[in-house]
């Protein structure tokens, strides 16, 4: 795709965005307004680039890559995308003619609170690298509301505060509510047989809605655009009767408990509640993701028989490994595969990378917590 934009065209687009999206003139706009206006322009270009990437992949029959990781340390999108698309010089000149410094706009963008360390940075680099090399790739993670934390020194002591990154960062996210997916927790399983088919019913479960938000990542020279899909947890239900009776806190309790799942990255796990939340986060990620992958694949091919031939699912570290039993569950309980056939497809589709052999870096979950929280597994 040709991303070229003249200085004059850039000025026109910025002015249009300021007026139509924020209701301000260029003379009265703040640096925040300019930053968001430029981000919206770049997001539109990336969206078009992503559409062309999908068309090119169809023509060349390139295998689709799905990359699952608990975190993606993306950094700041504006500077990275302007550089990759070759637009930084023209945007700098256009903004300069409007009395704005591009470097000041860079400072308006917070780091996306989706990762905090080497694992997240590795995942972000892989996504960038896959796009640069022309591979169609989709990364999957969670949309953490507060990221991990920000540090502040108070009287010489480190204090951890919430990282409010969404007000400045959500301009890069495209909500896709029509692609929401249900994830089930708790409850119990009832099994039976119907005409030699094994029937599995999940009863009395807690339903949490996974709302997808898409962020686009350009490769160098913009030859390919990857997508990062992150899930936000929401409750699909609201107790209007309880709310109207004046019991407002109880009415909101279910929604609040659902949203806890994607509040922060790596909650403390030195207590039972923290361990349960971490396990819940991991299953929420893999269940929503695997359902999304299967839905996309069945829409296109109507069978999972060819999944290993056209798709590769990569698990980055231990956190998303529940994707393996979740894919098996869907193939066995929902698609009617035998164990042997399902296992053959799964083992040829899913790959896993572990970055250390230290036992303390690996995860271990109690059977009781697994049995109660993840009934379907």
From TrEMBL:
GO terms for biological process: glycogen catabolic process. Keywords: Carbohydrate metabolism, Glycosyltransferase, Pyridoxal phosphate, Transferase. InterPro entries: Glyco_trans_35 (IPR000811). It comes from the Bacteria. This is Alpha-1,4 glucan phosphorylase. GO terms for cellular component: cytoplasm. Belongs to the glycogen phosphorylase family. Pfam families: Phosphorylase. It is an enzyme of class 2 (transferase). Allosteric enzyme that catalyzes the rate-limiting step in glycogen catabolism, the phosphorolytic cleavage of glycogen to produce glucose-1-phosphate, and plays a central role in maintaining cellular and organismal glucose homeostasis. It catalyses: [(1->4)-alpha-D-glucosyl](n) + phosphate = [(1->4)-alpha-D-glucosyl](n-1) + alpha-D-glucose 1-phosphate. SUPFAM superfamilies: UDP-Glycosyltransferase/glycogen phosphorylase (SSF53756). Its EC number is 2.4.1.1. It comes from Candidatus Caccousia stercoris. GO terms for molecular function: glycogen phosphorylase activity; pyridoxal phosphate binding. Its cofactor is pyridoxal 5'-phosphate.
